[in-house]
Write a structure and sequence with these properties.
Blueprint (H helix, E strand, L loop, with lengths): L9 H17 L6 H10 L11 H16 L3
């Protein structure tokens, strides 16, 4: 990663990947209902928590795996 690239917190990265997938789905680039289901689970409730609580631990594991692979 270059110094000029923005750093995201895990929460910001979560929101970014959600928005990326949402736009992908909205623009009809995928006819898969699986993406729609995934987005439903990742969507945030009024209290800021994901609709599917299992996604919190799954996301944390993904972040940890990326950081470990990058030696951080």
């Amino acid at each position: 990663m270059q110094d000029s690239e923005p750093l995201l917190t895990p929460r910001q990265a979560d929101l970014a990947v959600y928005e990326f997938l949402r736009q992908y789905h909205l623009h009809g680039l995928s006819e898969s209902e699986e993406i729609g289901g995934l987005l439903g689970g990742l969507s945030l409730l009024v209290d800021g928590q994901p609709a599917d609580p299992a996604d919190v631990s799954d996301w944390a594991a993904a972040v940890s795996a990326v950081l470990a692979a990058e030696g951080k």
